[in-house]
């Protein structure tokens, strides 16, 4: 099993959710986060004073999938989240050693 974490622009969340649903991935967690990478924020004016906004709003998606779903999952997120502009985000894939469904006690693939 693998955990796919994606940092995307907030307005792309529905597009990504739909793309994942189309390939059969229905369970996911979405978290509102703030951060920056190469995008490095921007400056804004407030009451005549200029200030730097370093941390930009993003959405972090977490999806746990089987090994055979990883490539399709990453491709679906990439296609749905891409705008072609700086700050589109990143995808991280890591190994998951164990999954337990709390309600039933099912483990691993049965718990996904």
Characteristic terms for this protein:
112 residues, alpha+beta, 20% helix, 36% strand
Spatial gap, N to C terminus: 9 Å
Q: Summarize the biggest pleated sheet.
A: 4 strands, antiparallel
| Number of discrete helical segments | 2
Radius of gyration: 17 Å
Q: How would you describe this protein?
A:
- With 112 residues, the chain is an alpha+beta fold.
- The chain is 20% helix and 36% strand.
- It has two helices and six strands.
- It has helices at 13-22, 70-81; strands at 2-8, 29-35, 42-46, 49-53, 56-65, 90-95.
- The strands form two sheets. A four-stranded antiparallel sheet has the order 2-5-1-6, covered by helices on one side. A two-stranded antiparallel ribbon has the order 3-4.
- A hairpin with a 2-residue loop joins strand 3 and strand 4.
- The chain is elongated.
- The mean pLDDT is 90.
């Amino acid at each position: 099993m693998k955990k796919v974490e994606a940092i995307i622009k907030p307005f792309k969340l529905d597009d990504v959710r739909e793309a994942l649903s189309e390939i059969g991935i229905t369970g996911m967690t979405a978290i509102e986060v703030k951060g920056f990478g190469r995008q490095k924020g921007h400056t804004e004016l407030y009451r005549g004073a200029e200030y730097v906004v370093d941390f930009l709003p993003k959405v972090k998606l977490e999806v746990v999938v089987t090994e055979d779903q990883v490539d399709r999952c990453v491709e679906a997120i990439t296609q749905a989240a891409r705008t072609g502009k700086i700050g589109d985000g990143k995808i991280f894939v890591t190994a998951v050693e164990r999954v337990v469904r709390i309600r039933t006690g099912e483990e691993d693939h049965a718990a996904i």
